[in-house]
Amino acid sequence: MNNLAVLIRQGEGENVEFKEQWNDHGLEALASFANTRGGTLLIGVQDNGAVIGWNGDDRAQQAIINQIVEILGLQPTVSVQQEQGKPVLVIKVSPITTLVACRGRYYQRVGNTTREIPAEQLGRYFIAKLGVQWDGVTNGYSIDQIDPVAVRRFVELARGRLPFARGEESVDSILQKLDLIPEGRVTRGAVLLFGKNPQAQFINAQIHMGRFKDDITIIDDKLLKGNLFAQLEGAVQLFRTYLQVRYEFEGTSREGEPLSAMQRKEIWDYPIEALREAVINALIHRDYFQAGQEIQIRVYDDRVVITNPGSLPEGMTVEELKREGHRSMPRNALLAQVFYYGELLEKWGTGTSRMIALCQKHGIPEPEFSANPDWFSVTFTKDIYTDNRLLALGLSDRQVKAVRYVKEKGAITNKAYRELTGITDRTALRDLKELCDRKIFNKEDKKGKATEYTLVKRIPT
């Protein structure tokens, strides 16, 4: 069996297309092959593989070649081969390093179909063809757009990890060694990290942050602009504005000394370091190709939601993110590298597990990660005693009622629990004991008063 017979028998696929006759759809198929992995177009074969033959002559064949060269800019391999006693025009094209257009449109091969590449995805295809990421693209940016003060500040941060981070290094030299101006060409990454006004080039490369009472009631609303370091600093400052803080005093003061002599520890609603880590992840992992989207941070009474454009890398799952030392697949490797050198990142692949550990230490639930094809978000929850969480721990409906009662009243007694649920004294004792054993309730015996049960200020397990 010859090669042509094998191709026909295998049927249409990612690199083979059948056409009864030549037309513009043939051009589109060839463009899709060139933009994917190359392929072969067979003229004179029906979709079902039946060979009907091609009736063109040498002149018609040359006209087709001229069309392919002039319209697509491709150099095809063209031949006429016999199959079942009938001529078949065989046109082969190889994959190319750029994208080829067909009459102003771009096509890709998906399975056995030719599909137009959506406009919003074209940038990704061009970058993939060039073998670089979004932050490594150069596009005529000038070194004059770089803020030398921002670079010097970074050098101070990076002294522990960058041996060349010395005060005498020029700005150009530092950026070259960071691969941010290869061969003197300023990259997008350089503009985002150290630009004087990055939003002049990338209008939505910013953070939209607000304080919300609920999904429609906005208490405060801010746009954080500037370079990525400025955006991070602005977000942390707003967290300190929006969130509540209490103080604990550590150590002891000598008699007569004021309380202020003791060391004061700030206890925020959430660990600030975990929130900061989530913002860093959003800044360096967001999909900057989605030019119409921005990072959003919503601070509610009971939760904080940080959302960035761009889903997880292909093949990575939310469950994998929860594992310590998971694969690191940065969407913007230059941004991630600079944040690492600046000691704003620990090891790559540890950010999400660090968030989890910080929340556990703080006594609040683990952050919830979620992703869809367009967005990734992380949600921090303040309340460790939500109904859903308690039910997931295996508590009964009446025990959940007890917890809800204590959240509102501060404590519950055996009598109050029986009145709340209508159960017997024996059942109430068993339920309350279980809640104590599960480290959800504290049992507090008071002289001359009924025993009270209060909430443990830690995560129940």
How does the overall form come out from the CA principal axes? flat
Secondary structure tally, helices? 16
| Helical proportion, percent range | 25-40%
Largest sheet: 6 strands, mixed
Which superfamily, in CATH terms, is the homologous superfamily of the domain at 3-122?
Schlafen, AAA domain
Radius of gyration: 32 Å
Query: Distance between the terminal alpha carbons, to the nearest Å?
Result: 67 Å
Low-confidence blocks of residues: none
Write the CATH architecture name of the domain at 3-122. Answer: 2-Layer Sandwich
User: Within the CATH hierarchy, at the fold level, what is the topology of the domain at 3-122?
Assistant: Methyltransferase, Cobalt-precorrin-4 Transmethylase, Domain 2
CATH classification, class level of the domain at 3-122: Alpha Beta
The count of DSSP E runs of length 2 or more, i.e. the number of strands, is 20
Overall pLDDT: 88
- Helix/strand structural class: alpha+beta
Describe the fold and architecture:
The strands form six sheets. A six-stranded mixed beta sheet has the order 11-10-14-15-17-16, covered by helices on one side. Helix 8 runs antiparallel to helix 9 and helix 15 crosses helix 16. Among the domains are: 3-122, Schlafen, AAA domain (Methyltransferase, Cobalt-precorrin-4 Transmethylase, Domain 2, 2-Layer Sandwich), CATH 3.30.950; 387-455, Orthogonal Bundle (Arc Repressor Mutant, subunit A). The chain is built from 16 helices and 20 strands. It starts with a helix and ends in a 6-residue tail after the last strand. It is of the alpha+beta class. It is 35% helix and 23% strand. The mean pLDDT is 88. A hairpin with a 2-residue loop joins strand 19 and strand 20.
